[in-house]
Amino acid sequence: MASEFWLISAPGDKTPQQTFEALKLKTENQGLSLNYKLNLPELKVGTLDTLVGLSDDLGKLDVHVESITKKLASYFAEVLEEKQDKVLENLQINGMDPATYLTKFNWDSAKYPTKQALRSISEIISKQITQIDSDLKTKASAYNAIKASLQNLERKSTGSLLVRNLSSVVEKEHFILNSEYLQTLLVVVPKSSTAEWETVYEKITDMIVPKSSMLLTSDSDYSLYTVTLFKKVIDEFKHHARERKFIVRDFVWDDVEIAASKEEITKMAEDKKKNFGPLVRWLKVNFAEIFIAWSHVKALRVFVESVLRFGLPVNFQAMLIQPVKGKNRRLRDVLDAQYAHLDGQQSNVKGETVDIPGLMSHGEYYSYVYFQMKLNLLER
């Protein structure tokens, strides 16, 4: 997928079409870029003061909507837990990838009515993306909580014997149950100390049942043993065992709790699966919505800056340029030469040269209107 586009505009020569054809001749025919018309509708211009203020506000809105677009795309990748190519397949707008959508851009009058003032359209977009951002935070928080709980349970079932849930390791017959005096403990012993444990465990305190220790399982670092002793010496045993770096796990066999523990991870996995589908559908729909909004912000910026630069009546051609990889510098040089004559010719409605505040506040200045749109959506 193409990762970079330039949105530019220049005054119409005899016609805007001639402006576009001249650009293609200088750039596309030399293998520097692929060029497309950026189709803008007839929009309400408003006053010069309104346009100047809107220019600054659209710059801030552009940064904001780009940030949320990338945040949503990145979270989509996190939810899918797939490789980048697979994630990009899901980042679609009306069945098109972002680059194709841009090259076929048409203003969505249903979402952003052209009869509205430019400021009103900007506010519609701002409210829309604020709502998407708010909904994303809510949905991500809920799903992440389920995911974190499941991961925590999975760690407990697969982690070190020091921390893992032991209910999947032990069986009921490993324990002395319902005894008034005796209790079976589970002890985690470093693998380097297993020989010592088997030699000394009966001597750690008095009142330990001889030959009661049984090796249940081992991982890469530890082994898990049982030991049975009188309840009255449990605290003393724990103390002296800890001195030897034998760790007694707090575990008491309980049929109900054991069953619940085994069911919990299954239930949490089902909860995650149940929430996954609706979340993915929401992310697909709202990625499309926010990318459409971002594209329209770019289109608005091109329109506003073009009117500020080239004056009225509206007579400019907006164009979308996809630079050929490695040809950016050469392409820039050609554009600078093609539109060098525009410097000093910017005028207001009356044809007077004006210095418009904020016109150069959103990036580098060129004699033509220029904005960049990078589609590296999974990079933050």
Structural features, described:
The structure is a single chain. The protein has 380 residues and is of the alpha+beta class. A hairpin with a 3-residue loop joins strand 4 and strand 5. The protein has a four-stranded antiparallel sheet. Strands 4-5-3-6 form a four-stranded antiparallel sheet, with helices on one face. It is elongated, with a radius of gyration of 34 Å. The protein has helices spanning 16-26, 48-80, 84-90, 98-103, 118-158, 194-200, 234-243, 255-310, 328-338, and strands at 4-11, 33-37, 182-190, 214-218, 222-230, 247-249, 316-323, 369-374. Residues 346-362 have low confidence and may be disordered. The longest helix is centred in the last third of the chain and has 56 residues, at 255-310. The chain contains nine helices and eight strands.
Question: How far is it from the N-terminal to the C-terminal residue, by CA?
Answer: 17 Å
Given as residue ranges, the uncertain stretches (5+ residues, pLDDT < 50) are 346-362
Number of strands: 8
In helices, the fraction of residues equals 40-55%
In terms of DSSP E residues, the strand content is 5-15%
Mean pLDDT: 91
State the shape: elongated
Largest sheet strand order: 2-7-1-8
The arrangement of helices and strands along the chain is EHEHHHHEHEEHEHEHE
- Note the total helix count: 9
Sheet with most strands: 4 strands, antiparallel
Oligomeric composition of the shown chains = single chain
Determine the structural class based on helices, strands and strand pairing.
Answer: alpha+beta
Structural Rg:
34 Å
